[in-house]
């Protein structure tokens, strides 16, 4: 049975590439949001993905605030932060956030996401 993933990223090409990667073997059913606000609205409306893959670099938004809002709405969702930048730049904030962890965008794979999401609640 596939798990559901909500990709939250402002780059449509990145969302499409991640969707193709995650849906290729049927392990994940993917939905998308173009912003943190759109993701929060979707979850508030009742969408409950198993995993949220959230870009740290969303324009005009604080991804760490978005993670807190999402966890308030659905405590059992696994939140995974991602960025083109390295985790050490955000390490302290990631550690304090409700996210299960961080994946660099260039290292995202089905296995990496599955391994990290397995650590979530």
UniProtKB/TrEMBL annotation:
Pfam families xrefs: Response_reg (PF00072)
List of residues that carry 4-aspartylphosphate: 55
Entries under Gene3D superfamilies matching the protein: 3.40.50.2300
Domain (Response regulatory) ranges: 4-120
Keyword set includes Phosphoprotein: yes
InterPro entries the record matches: Bact_response_regulator (IPR050595), CheY-like_superfamily (IPR011006), Sig_transdc_resp-reg_receiver (IPR001789)
Keywords of the record: Phosphoprotein
Keyword check for Transport: no
Protein name in the entry: Response regulatory domain-containing protein
Species annotation: Streptomyces longisporus
Lineage: Bacteria, Bacillati, Actinomycetota, Actinomycetes, Kitasatosporales
